[in-house]
Amino acid sequence: MITSIQNNEEKCQCIGTLIKEKRIRLNMTQKELADAVGLAKHGDRTIRRWESGIGSPSKLELNQILLFPEDVPFGNKDNADYTMIDLFAGIGGTRLGFQLTGRTKVVFSSEIDKFAAKTYKSNYGEEPSGDITLIHEEEIPNHDILVGGFPCQAFSQAGKKLGFEDTRGTLFFEIERIIKAKRPKAFLLENVKNLKSHDKGKTYSVIKTTLEDLGYAVYDNVFKAKDFGVPQNRERIYIVGFDINSVPNYATFEFPNPPKIKVSVGDVLEQNVSEKYTISDALWDGHQRRKIENKKMEKALDILYLMQKVLILILSLLDTIKMAVKY
Q: Which among 41, 47, 108, 307 would be 20 to 30 A from 17, CA to CA?
């Protein structure tokens, strides 16, 4: 019996070591690993116990952890036709579009949010530089293309729409500073569609004039994600610019025509899903039972509410009769 307990403890310690080593290789906290493999609420506590040799995961849970990919999915190219920098990079969504062409190499990136930066590193194997306002333009390598999705909260319909009066709105001028110093051949900027109409168009007029004064031909267009086969009605303005002195054929640029592919959420959902994401039959039956019980309760409450109204009406009627008899 004692030998069996010792063997079980040794097994838990061994599994705990494997999990911890895996997590360290992934550069994740216990909470990040728990979230990544889909553990339930407070999954970080579960990871902590496993790593300490207290209990052990199921075979399915252990496989989810140990088989979690470690290779960088979108490694940078050593040789490419163009170099680019990725400002306000987030998790690297815009960069991915360029990288999938196979013709660009990223030589610098910047992102202030530590969680987004960690995801960016998982995607690309590179740690973005931090706050762009603290980075001197001379520290940024020369590049052909500048990409920047500068913060949109200052212009968004969902925000206070303070524009340049909001500190986040002034971050556009960090882009201006870098463009002026490094003179990329082209740039791509992205923001909410409300940027163009903000402050009756004055905000966008300042942005466009600023870029044109730097010697760039500037084009803009609003696209909807749903028109490109994404089941999301997300509208964004894209601003494209070319250095008129180094890109002689800039005037031939045209925005692409959206294919307007009709797509629904069902088209992108996975068909083969792990059992851990499916509730058990017993749990489903419980939901259905509570739904029926709630319906009955709603009906009972409706009757109670009706009786209350009738009672109030009767009392009011009695008061009226009482007053009539009195006089």
A: 41
